[in-house]
Amino acid sequence: MADRSLFPSLLLVCSGGLTTVGLLFSGFWEASALAEAGLYWSESGQTASWVMPQPAWPGEPSEPQVSLVAESDLSGAQPPDSLNPFEEETSLGLALSAEAQARLDLLKQGDGLYEAGDRSGAMALYRQAKQAAAPVSSRSSRPDPTFSPDYSAAVKVYWREGTVGLEQQLESKAVVPLTILTEKYPEFIPGHLKLAEAHNHYQRPEAALAALERGASAYPNVPELQEALMQQQATMMRWLPAAITARQFAALNPDHPRASEFAELAEVYQQKFRATLREDITSNTIGSVLTGALNVGLGNPLGVISPIQNAVVMLRGENSVGASAAKSYQKRLEMLEDEAVNDYISRIGQKLAAVSGRDLDYEFFVVNDEKLNAFALPGGKIFIHSGAILKSQSEAELAGLIAHELSHAVLSHGFQVYTNANATGSLTQLVPFGGLFSKVAVTRYSREMEEQADLLGTRILANAGYAADGLENLTRRLTAEKPERRGAFWLSTHPEPENRIEYISAFIDRNGYNRYSYEGVAPHQAMQARVRSALRSLEEVEEAEEVKVEAELEGDRTELLEP
Description:
Elements: H1 6-15, H2 17-27, H3 31-36, E1 40-44, E2 47-51, H4 98-115, H5 119-130, H6 153-167, H7 171-184, H8 189-201, H9 205-218, H10 223-235, H11 239-252, H12 259-297, H13 305-315, H14 318-332, H15 339-353, E3 363-367, E4 374-377, E5 381-385, H16 386-391, H17 395-410, H18 413-425, H19 434-463, H20 470-481, H21 497-511, H22 521-561
Parallel strand pairs: 3-5
Antiparallel strand pairs: 1-2, 4-5
Helix pairs in contact: 1-2, 1-12, 2-12, 4-5, 6-7, 6-8, 7-8, 8-9, 9-10, 10-11, 11-12, 12-13, 12-18, 13-18, 15-17, 17-19, 17-20, 18-19, 19-21, 20-21
């Protein structure tokens, strides 16, 4: 039974005004204050958290607040299908056209040459299979970086004109030649640095950031570019991207003399990100507690519960929160118990995680479900439905999907969504139809996150040695097979298929990522066979259960009809 003595103390929060709220907030980080606030410590299985007693309240129950990270009551949570970019039904029988089969055979032959060390021969077969209309540059074909203006006569002219224009405070004379210089001769590293300097001089930090991102993506092993990008991100107070930039350089260049320096900077920026997150949580919680107090005055005492619990949950950290949520989902979902398939997914995931630029407690799980689905929890807990293995045609395509989801964790998207929801969600309790307004606002933000995950995921995919167009090809093929999937664009949490194909393809071309690298067709097909077997077994069990239930119902009906 609920403790109704909680109501007077809740009403005191409202009647006491801002002073009481301030006192409550200033001390509730501590366990003693949490206990005084009426929360109790609940332990269930391997999870534990502070929980507000739920009073019995007449009338219809409030709609539960479902989140990615709140584990105080995850027993009723559903897997966040809306986070996946491709959700779609699949079939156990995947009949391929003769053309598609021939393409896969060529890719498989290319894989054989690739693994044998014949990279040029493999690339020729990969090109033939993908029927490229024009050669696409690969990172290996880029010229070596240079710092000398005497690299060529053209470089010397563009460099002179740009630097003189900047000295003379002539914007066009500075920016135009430097822009052309970086486009035509991206290997000239000072060009990227000087162009960013010019954009910053004319108060265009976003343009400066874009210029440095292009250079850093094309030459990830040049510390001067990575350092400039990192400093630009830090100047703009984008602490998490700065930490990721530093970690990526350290991860991709472990033998570089400055690798340890970049690793240390990553920790510094990560701490700044955490401090900023804590400040945001504090600010959001103050507003939510005030709103909760107003809710109490209006007869809704449950409004004050969420802010306190949410803040405590958020401060536990992504790894801890993600681990608790993952355990809950493992209990609720039908997990695939095939060791070989689980090892396959884990191997791909850890290979991608190694070049993700962020150190999280990465874990990868396979759900025995034929839907093409995947979702990420905070802290690097990635769930892949077995249908994703069936619908993808190569390890590179599947790795593209996993890299996309992994990028959500790397970029702390789950935590960001949860923080923003805590800031706006409680306010909607006071505004009619506020839920729709809040959903639209968050949905718009989510589409931006999806693009970030697409681009970072593609970068991770290429850096891990897979064909860089794995995610692009999967998206392109699914769009061609089932174009009606697009649905309502405005309320979708993902960019329109044609848009995402376009910007992913442009990103690959602009940064010179290699489309003609390892595909992994044969090992993927072996795992597909195991998944089909597991799904058939699951179907047989479900059919047997249905027959059993029908027999029991028929027996009950017969018994009732007997005189």
